[in-house]
Amino acid sequence: MSNVTRCWWIRHAPVVDNGGLVYGQSDIAADLSDRAPYQSLARFLPAGAVWVASHLQRTHQTAGAIGDAGLDVPELIVEPDLAEQDLGDWQGQPRDEVFARYGEWHKLWVAPATTAAPGGESFADLIDRMVPAVERLVRDHRGRDIVIVAHGGTIRAALAHALGLAPATALAFTIDNLSLTRLDYIKPANREQGVWRVVSVNRIPG
Q1: pLDDT at residue 104, as a whole number
Q2: 102 to each of 18, 44, 105, 202, how far by Cα in Å?
Q3: Which residues is 51 bridged to in the sheet?
Q4: C-alpha span between 29 and 101 (Å, rounded)
Q5: Which residues contact 108 (CB under 8 A, 6 or more apart)?
Q6: Nearest to 86 by CA among 125, 114, 120
Q7: Is 179 within 8 Å of 203 (Cβ atoms)?
Q8: Each residue of 91-140: pLDDT tens digit?
Q9: CA atoms of 117 and 111, how far apart (whole Å)
Q10: CATH of domain 4-203
Q11: Is 186 helix (H, G, I), strand (E, B) or coil?
């Protein structure tokens, strides 16, 4: 069994038809109209991988579009804990208005990393939620390729975990729609804990 488990994180396809509203964990559809990115991903991603997605439809649609572009995509493992940050009462409100509430902070994210949305969670809460799911995946599928179709916040959280970053620091990463972030978990059999290796961040396969 290989000591290296490769996690291929893909941010879902863009959401363009929600009227400029904050969506967070709202289950809205993605725009799949531009076929070229899925063809590039289908050529670039490994065959025979385990595929994982959150419970939100935009991740499933994205995985399906990559499959339609020529890659054999197996049945998805659904991990609700890999969903986007729950933005609570901010969901459905105009994005510009919500982002403006914290002044210049909107240049990085909707709110400081430890500030929870009313009725929702903070980015720090998201990290705490998703880390056990990631650790379970790399344990259960050790030595495999794992393609994870997820969300911008979730992928930032994965980088925070891999690099041991403070939540506020991790918000500095840009994660574009349909970009690839590759994180490898390396765990020799004779060690209790492994280490993370960052291979790429926010790569657009071409």
Answers
A1: 61
A2: 22, 39, 5, 26
A3: 147
A4: 27
A5: 171, 172
A6: 120
A7: yes
A8: 999 988 888 887 666 568 888 899 999 999 999 999 999 999 999 999 99
A9: 8
A10: 3.40.50.1240
A11: strand
pLDDT score, position 98: 86
What proportions of the chain, in percent to the nearest 5, are helix, strand and coil?
35, 20, 45
Three-state secondary structure of 44-66: HCCCCCEEEECCCHHHHHHHHHH
Q: What pLDDT is stored for residue 190 in this prediction?
A: 80
Q: Give 11-68 pLDDT, tens digit per residue.
A: 999 998 888 899 999 999 999 999 999 999 999 999 999 999 999 999 999 999 999 9
Instruction: Classify residue 167 as exposed, middle or buried by CB count within 10 Å of its CB (0-12, 13-18, 19+).
Output: buried
Q: Which of 2, 16, 50, 1 is nearest to 178 (CA)?
A: 16
Residue 6 parent element (H or E): strand 4-11
Q: What are the sequence ranges of the domains in the chain?
A: 4-203
Helices (H), the chain: 36-44, 57-68, 95-100, 123-140, 152-163, 167-170
Locus of tokens 């289950």: 27
Which residue type, as a one-letter code, is found at position 191?
R
